[in-house]
Design a protein that fits this description.
The complex is a heterodimer. Chain A is mainly alpha-helical. Chain A contains 7 helices and 2 strands, in the order H-H-E-E-H-H-H-H-H. The chains are: A mainly alpha, B mainly alpha.
Chain lengths: 215, 241
């Protein structure tokens, strides 16, 4: 869920940017090292970024009747690793803000944190953990992508609740409000994204495509 | 085809220096964030809309661009209308005012940013970021990503059209499957495309940078001064009212 331009108060917007910036810079430094060793990797990375952008424009059927789109963070984290995903995700979020007016510059930091940092790391962690616990590949991918997707919404609810605490019940009430609204629309969507990611990963395994950039 | 991008290339302000447009639009964005929503945000919204019309957009086009973000902001702002307490859920006392203020601030900010994107092509924006200190490698990845977007979008929409023509959108299960197959078919294509481009570039002595020419534009200090003055006037006016 993108937080729209101007939605967060200035202080919150700055604070989330300050939280996200170092993490993206660390990812960027790692990326620069990869690019210096292999200049041609930038084309693969760019293709992956453009893929994520186009994928986010893909309409997924959602049970509530509205259509929404996958975040692609789980797929990204499993395919190229969470550190590289944070940088590519930032680029994609910037394009979404500029070209589609979806998200924004002032809320870029908050959006980067929920969708390019928290989501990928949760997806990656769950996917690895489920694999270690002996879950079959399909189930591990499904859990990773679904929980990664849900994780981004929980983080977004948290960010919104911090910015707009409820007049009576404060942060807790606001978090419940935002999370409930998201739960109605996003739980089916997260499950859809999980299934989608399994279909993609299966098809990719069938083609024996190896992604080159592992973090 | 992305509408904001098409409009940027056809804009009357296309040839104006980036510094002037950036000062105006980012200045408006900062005003939208910093000033009290009434009347600051309303002023910003009006000025940004006027700018869009002067730069060559028709009013319906501008409103059509603003509509989807407006819808998202509305759904978010709606949560401020209700409050949760020990007794249950009720309408918040001043929720309507809060939501209205939030809506106007966010809408003004969106309009300010949108004015920048419908007047300035992406290549220029990335060069601006480059001048502000974005490392060259990241600028290149960003621009290459931008170029790939259009190629992949064409491919994806062709795939989508042929899936729909084969009843791929019939029912929820099949739509998930179609979307998954589309994504799965698109990713290898994107990577293949990247590989072919890379081989073609290597054969031409690719060292990692893709330089492009930009039309030279001279920044005129008096125009910057006028824009800054106008922004200051807006700030003064809305603080005074």
């Amino acid at each position: 869920m993108h937080i729209m331009e101007g939605f967060l108060p200035a202080g919150h917007a700055l604070a989330w940017s300050a939280v996200s910036a170092p993490l993206v810079v660390v990812g960027a430094m790692r990326l620069r090292k990869i690019l210096r060793d292999r200049p041609e990797a930038r084309l693969t990375l760019a293709a992956a970024g453009a893929f994520a952008f186009v994928l986010s424009a893909l309409k997924l059927p959602s049970v509530t009747g509205s259509c929404s789109h996958p975040t692609g963070t789980g797929l990204g984290a499993m395919a190229v690793g969470p550190a590289a995903t944070s940088v590519i995700g930032t680029i994609v979020l910037l394009f979404q803000a500029l070209l589609l007016a979806h998200g924004g510059l002032t809320t870029l930091g908050a959006n980067v944190f929920s969708m390019a940092i928290a989501g990928p790391w949760i997806a990656f962690g769950v996917w690895k953990l489920a694999g270690k616990l002996g879950a079959p590949m399909g189930l591990a991918i499904f859990l990773g992508a679904t929980l990664g997707d849900l994780g981004t919404y929980v983080v977004t609810s948290f960010q919104l609740a911090l910015a707009f605490p409820d007049a009576v019940s404060g942060f807790g009430g606001a978090f419940a409000k935002f999370a409930t609204i998201f739960a109605i629309t996003q739980i089916p969507l997260a499950i859809a994204e999980g299934l989608l990611t399994v279909v993609v990963m299966n098809a990719l395994a069938g083609r024996q495509i190896k992604t080159e950039i592992r973090a | 085809m992305i509408e904001a991008d098409r409009l940027a290339h056809a804009s009357r302000w296309r040839r104006l220096p980036l510094a002037e447009k950036a000062l105006l639009c980012l200045g408006l964005l900062i005003l939208a964030m910093a000033l009290p929503p009434w009347p600051g945000a309303v002023l910003v919204l009006l000025v940004a809309s006027a700018g869009a019309v002067i730069s060559g957009l028709t009013l319906p086009t501008w409103l059509r661009l603003l509509a989807p973000p407006c819808f998202f902001i509305l759904t978010g702002a709606a949560t401020l209308l209700v409050q949760v307490s020990a007794d249950g859920i009720g309408l918040a006392a001043d929720g309507g005012i809060q939501a209205g203020l939030l809506l106007s601030r966010a809408l003004a900010a969106v309009a300010a940013l949108l004015l920048l994107t419908v007047t300035t092509p992406m290549a220029e924006l990335v060069q601006g970021l480059r001048r502000l200190g974005l490392p060259v490698e990241l600028a290149e990845v960003t621009m290459t990503t931008y170029r790939f977007i259009f190629i992949l979008q064409d491919t994806a929409s062709a795939m989508h059209a042929s899936q729909m023509a084969r009843l791929g959108g019939d029912g929820w299960r099949r739509r998930i499957r179609s979307a998954g197959l589309l994504a799965a078919a698109l990713l290898p294509r994107a990577l293949d495309q990247a590989r072919r481009l890379e081989m073609g570039l290597l054969a031409r002595g690719f060292d990692g940078s893709l330089r492009t020419l930009m039309p030279a534009q001279r920044v005129r200090p008096w125009r910057l001064a006028v824009i800054a003055g106008g922004l200051a006037l807006m700030a003064g006016l809305s603080l005074w009212i």
